[in-house]
Amino acid sequence: MKIAVLVPAYNEENQIRNTIKGIMNIPYDIDLFVIDDGSTDNTVKYVQEFKNVNLLTYGANKGKGFALNFGLKKVIGNYDIIGFLDGDIGETSSEAEKLIKPILYDKIDVTIAQFPSAKKKGGFGFVKRLSFSGIKYFTGKEIYSGLSGQRFFKKEVLEIIEEIPFGYGVEVGMTIDILKKGFTIKEVPVVMTHNETGRNISGFIHRFKQFYHIILILIKKALKN
């Protein structure tokens, strides 16, 4: 089966090379696409160092949801399995092998990476509880990793779900759409790391944006019902 991995990246010069190297260590034949979301640092330069990586660009920063939709339009018709991995997970991106196996061998439609507990204190769990409660309310299913952006899909899933939501509610919105369509999701424990937000001003601003965007997604879905 043909596998593509999409990596949306915005100002990820510190980790993008390691993320690419980790993906290259996965023992499957993978076509890698990095979607630059208007980076102003050396992200594009570092991606171009890898001759077998496809770089997709469109100019200004438009957010993760836009980047994923942009990338999907380029690959959806040519691959059987498509994965989303964030640009900041470094060489732990090689753990994505664990996300591919259940789709190849266990008849699972979608896998989501279940990260280990955070090493430093972040928020107070409001965003995670909102994610869990929102998904359960609309689908009846309990998904504990609804905020995780590390996911792999059978092509058929991405072909029939609604357009990937924009903003910080992208993962929650996708999870609800997937489950409502009757597809199977498996949460897979992985040993991945990413840039964690702490209990500081920038961290709280990030979590507020997440909370706000998820609320907007849930309201939008409630109005459709």
TrEMBL record:
Superkingdom, taxonomy of origin: Bacteria
SUPFAM superfamilies, sorted: Nucleotide-diphospho-sugar transferases
InterPro entries from the UniProt entry: Glyco_trans_2-like, Glycosyltransferase_2, Nucleotide-diphossugar_trans
Gene Ontology MF term list: glycosyltransferase activity
UniProt keyword terms in alphabetical order: Glycosyltransferase, Magnesium, Transferase
Gene3D superfamilies registered for this protein in UniProt: Spore Coat Polysaccharide Biosynthesis Protein SpsA, Chain A (3.90.550.10)
EC number(s) from the headed UniProt entry: 2.4.1.266
Cofactor(s) needed by this chain: Mg(2+)
Glycosyltransferase 2-like domain sequence ranges: 5-158
Reactions that this protein is recorded to catalyse: (2R)-3-phosphoglycerate + UDP-alpha-D-glucose = (2R)-2-O-(alpha-D-glucopyranosyl)-3-phospho-glycerate + UDP + H(+); an NDP-alpha-D-glucose + (2R)-3-phosphoglycerate = (2R)-2-O-(alpha-D-glucopyranosyl)-3-phospho-glycerate + a ribonucleoside 5'-diphosphate + H(+)
Family: Belongs to the glycosyltransferase 2 family.
Protein name: Glucosyl-3-phosphoglycerate synthase
Species assigned in the record: Acetoanaerobium noterae
